[in-house]
Amino acid sequence: MMGLLYAGCATVQPWQRGRLADPCMTFDSDASRVAYQTHWEEAREASAGGFGVQSGGCGCK
Amino acid sequence: MDWAQDELNVQVHSFQDTRDATIISPTIDLAKDFTDRTSLRVKFGLDAISAASDSCVRCHRPGANDTRVLAGASLIRKLSDDTKLTVGAEVGHEKFYQSTTVLASISKNLNKGNTTVAGGYSFSLNRPQLHPSQQTENQFANDAYASLTQTLTKSTIAQFGYEIAQINGYQSSPFLRALLNGERVVGVSPDSRTRQTLTVRLRQALPLDSYLETDYRHYLDNWSIHSNSLQVGLSHYVTRQLLANVSYRWYQQTGAFFYAPEYFGNPQYFTGDFRFQPFDSSLYSGRLVLTPRGRVLWLPAGAALTAEYEYYRSTTGFAAAIFTGGVRIPLGTR
Fold it and tell me: Residue B29 belongs to what H/E stretch?
């Protein structure tokens, strides 16, 4: 599936990347905000992960 | 990470929920380039916790306060123009819980920067103290992830990720008491847990200076907990200096195979951890980012001010409100 996806993708040249360079197009551009949100979600939900390597645990209760 | 810019990011989060926990969390992130190929990121965070939640008030009638301190550092090294290596460590300390984490990740750009493959690994040693006793237990967590980020068109980027974690050791909560044969007792959870996560994320540039973000995550573990979450957000530049964002996150999970509101007899596993029950939840968020032209007061040109409000509500009756205020200060460019 990944190969088919890759084969169908356009190659965007560097001078065409104007809108792609906006911070809104960057995943997790505010790492501090993402880290805090995933931390409190994991303190209130059973799931964790999906956004890079995990930090340590906590006694959150 | 923006390689070209040194930056200080200060945020203050205020969290309050229906379990009567109030948490004020200032965080500081500093990113600093030392050479053209080496950068250091340092972070410091504090959770000032006023917890009158039921897990504390049972013994501490007025409630109980705690402070969690978190500190971490990461060194980022460009091995080549396309490859970046990150190594780091993080320590957390609070009453009755210590955690130490080491982590490493690598990413490589391919296809003229249209494709990025990344992977990482972390190891955590978590040490809960079985309050009110002095006994301390160990928990070992190994975590690995891989992701593929692909530019699909001039206005579309997708990311696919997979993560697996193996956690061994003590995993019961010494604070949350299970109801067993009519008595409140410390729960017993399995001492091994394997967690897997699949993510599909999309960023789409829209007309009129707007952007759509969509994140889907499927989670499963060997405790029979399955979850799905879907987050959709829309960002719009009201002016070039003012960015507005609204988003909604839907979350659904099944319960752990050993979860029950109450236990009878002599079960092998039993828990009072409210996170292991089945529930759905919704998170509503609104954010404003203001980047004034030129200097403002003592802030240099390029500084950004952020204000965000989030409201979380689940089908269990639990609700939380989170307010965040922050400032990002560029420290100079290379």
Answer: strand B21-33
3 state SS for chain A: CHHHHHHCCCCCCHHHCCHHHCHHHCCCCCHHHHHHHHHHHHCCCCCCCCCCCCCCCCCCC
Query: What is the residue extent of each domain of chain B?
Result: 74-170+191-257+278-333
**Chain A CB within 8 Å of residue B216 CB:** no
Contact B203 A26 (CB under 8 A): yes
Residue type, B135: Q
DSSP designation for B263: B
Assigned token pair, B62 = 């007025």
Count CA atoms closer than 13 A to B1's CA, side-chain side.
27
Q: At residue B22, does pLDDT exceed 90?
A: no
Q: Where are the alpha helices (DSSP H) in chain B?
A: 54-57
Within 287-326 of B, beta carbons closer than 8 Å to A belong to: 306, 308, 310, 312, 314, 318, 320, 322, 324, 326
The fold of B74-170+191-257+278-333 is Porin (2.40.160)
Can you give the C-alpha Rg of chain B in angstroms? 22
pLDDT of residue A35: 87
Beta carbon pairs, A and B, within 8 Å: 196
A7 and chain B in contact, CB less than 8 A: no
Give per-residue pLDDT as tens, B261-310: 999 999 999 999 999 999 999 999 999 999 998 888 888 888 999 999 99
Q: Return the DSSP state at B255.
A: P
Length of chain A: 61
Is B105's pLDDT higher than 90? yes
Q: Whole-angstrom Cα distance, residue B112 to residue B161?
A: 21
What pTM value is reported for the model? 0.90
Inform me whether the C-beta atom of residue B148 falls under 8 Å from chain A C-beta atoms. yes
Nearest to A60 by CA among B250, B140, B257, B274: B274
Q: Residue B235 is nearest to which of A10, A20, A24, comparing CB atoms?
A: A24
H/E element holding B205?
A: strand B192-206
Portion 17-56 of A in contact with B at CB < 8 A = 17, 19-20, 22, 24-27, 30-33, 35-37, 40, 44-56
